[in-house]
Amino acid sequence: MAVAALRRDDPVRLGDYHLLGRLGEGGQGTVYLGRRGDAGEQAAVKLLGAQAAESETARMRFMREFEVAMQVDDFCTARVLDVGMQDGRPFIVSEYVPGPSLYRQVTEHGPLTGGELQRVAIGMATALVAIHQRGIVHRDLKPQNVLLGPSGARVIDFGIARALDVSTQTTRMIGTPLYMAPEQVRAESAAPPIDVFAWATTVVFAATGAPPFGADSLPAVINRILNDEPDLGDLTGRLREIAALCLAKDPERRPDAAQVLLWLLGKDLAPPRPPAAAPASAELQAIPREVLVEGRKLAELRRSDAATRSTGGTATDPADLSFGERGRTSPAGGRADWGGAPTPPPQMPQTPLPPHTPPPAGGYPMAPRPPHGEATWPPPAPRARKGSGLRWVIAASVVAVLLAGALALLLLLPRLLASDGNGGGYETRSPQPTHTVTSSPYGGQGDGYGTHY
C-alpha cells in the first residue's frame, strides 16, 4: 500500500501512535500509517473527519462500533488494536496490512483470474462468515475495503460505514451505491443478505474490472440494481453460478455467507428454492377425486357463462362439459334468471323421469342428483366491471361447492354402504345423453391450487 506524505494540517501524533504518513482518505475521515513508540509495530490509524466529529451521535456510534469490532475474529480481517480521542475527534487503531486494496490492484494491473481470483473470493466469504456470526453487518463491502496482504485477502472497515453515518433519517441510503443490494438502495433492510450481495458484486469487479450494474450515473446504476439482471462479463464456471445466486433481487433467495463458503470449497450447489406453496388443508385433501372433477367442470361452466354475458357473444356450449340441464334462454337471446324449474336443453332427447323434489328457488340448475344427495349453488354474484372481480367470485363459489359436496359425502357414506340397489329412499333419474370430458381444463388431480410467489 502506497504511503503519502503528511499534509500541513495533519496531526503528527494520535494517542500513543506517531504518524508516519497517509494511507488513504474518504468522506468520513483519514487513515494514517502510525507506529507505537520508537520500535513498535506499525498500525493503521483512522481519524474521524472534523465535520462528522461535530455530531455527538456520530461520535457515540464510532465508539460503540469499536466495541463491536473487537468481538470479530481477526484471522481474515484487520485486527482492531486500540481506540482513542483527540481534540474531540475519535480514532480507531487497527492492524496494518501491507498490500494494495482490491480496487487498486484491479484498476492498475487488470482483473484477477484463476487461483488468485478464487483465493480472494474465499477470503472475503470467510470474513463475512466471521462477521455475521458476531451479529454484525458490514454494509459497505466493496473492492476498496478488501486489502490484498501477504497472507491473503483481508476485509477492513466492517461496520464502520454504519457508525460513521451522521444522519438520523432512517430512510437514507448507507453504503456505496455501486455495490448495494436492492433492499439497501430502498433503505428497507440492513441484514446479512446485503453483504452477500456486495460480496458477489465485488467478485464480479475482481474478475471483470467493472461492477455488475455499471458505474455511470447514479440514477442509472440504481435503476439497474432494482430492475435489471447483472452483467457478469467474463466471470466463468462455478464462481459465476455462485455469484448469480448471490445477486438475486429477493434477499430470501440468496444463500447466506456460510453456504457461499461451502460452495466455494467444493460442496455441491443447491440453489435456494422459492417459497413453497402452502399445502392444501386436511379438509380439501380429503375431498374425493370425483368431487374435484365435478368442481372443475362447474368452474368451466361459470367461466363460459361469464364470457357470454360480458362480450354478448356465444361461449362454448356448457352441455359439452357434461353438466346436463342449463338455464332458460330469454326471447331476447340472453340467459333468463337462474331461479325457477330447470328447462331441458333444446333438441336433446328426453326420458320421462319419476317425480322428484325441484331445486330451491334461486339455485343454480344442477346435473342429475347423485346417489349421495344434492348440493346447492348460491346465487351468482353481480357482474364485475373487470375480470379480476369475477375470477374471485368463481374461485370462492367453486370452493363452496367442493366443501359442500365433500361434507355431504362424508355424512351420507355410511347410509350408502348400508343400502342395496336403489334402496334407502333415494330417488333415481334415467340417464341423459352427455358429452364426455376427456381432461380437466386445469390439468390432473390436485391442480387449481396455484403456487404464488
UniProtKB/TrEMBL annotation:
<dbReference type="Pfam" id="PF00069">
    <property type="entry name" value="Pkinase"/>
</dbReference>
<feature type="transmembrane region" description="Helical">
    <location>
        <begin position="392"/>
        <end position="413"/>
    </location>
</feature>
<keyword id="KW-1133">Transmembrane helix</keyword>
<feature type="compositionally biased region" description="Gly residues">
    <location>
        <begin position="443"/>
        <end position="453"/>
    </location>
</feature>
<keyword id="KW-0723">Serine/threonine-protein kinase</keyword>
<keyword id="KW-0418">Kinase</keyword>
<dbReference type="InterPro" id="IPR000719">
    <property type="entry name" value="Prot_kinase_dom"/>
</dbReference>
<keyword id="KW-0547">Nucleotide-binding</keyword>
<feature type="compositionally biased region" description="Pro residues">
    <location>
        <begin position="342"/>
        <end position="370"/>
    </location>
</feature>
<keyword id="KW-0472">Membrane</keyword>
<dbReference type="InterPro" id="IPR008271">
    <property type="entry name" value="Ser/Thr_kinase_AS"/>
</dbReference>
<keyword id="KW-0812">Transmembrane</keyword>
<feature type="region of interest" description="Disordered">
    <location>
        <begin position="303"/>
        <end position="386"/>
    </location>
</feature>
<dbReference type="GO" id="GO:0005524">
    <property type="term" value="F:ATP binding"/>
</dbReference>
<feature type="compositionally biased region" description="Polar residues">
    <location>
        <begin position="429"/>
        <end position="442"/>
    </location>
</feature>
<protein>
    <submittedName>
        <fullName>Serine/threonine protein kinase</fullName>
    </submittedName>
</protein>
<feature type="domain" description="Protein kinase">
    <location>
        <begin position="17"/>
        <end position="264"/>
    </location>
</feature>
<keyword id="KW-0067">ATP-binding</keyword>
<dbReference type="GO" id="GO:0004674">
    <property type="term" value="F:protein serine/threonine kinase activity"/>
</dbReference>
<keyword id="KW-0808">Transferase</keyword>
<dbReference type="InterPro" id="IPR011009">
    <property type="entry name" value="Kinase-like_dom_sf"/>
</dbReference>
<feature type="region of interest" description="Disordered">
    <location>
        <begin position="424"/>
        <end position="453"/>
    </location>
</feature>
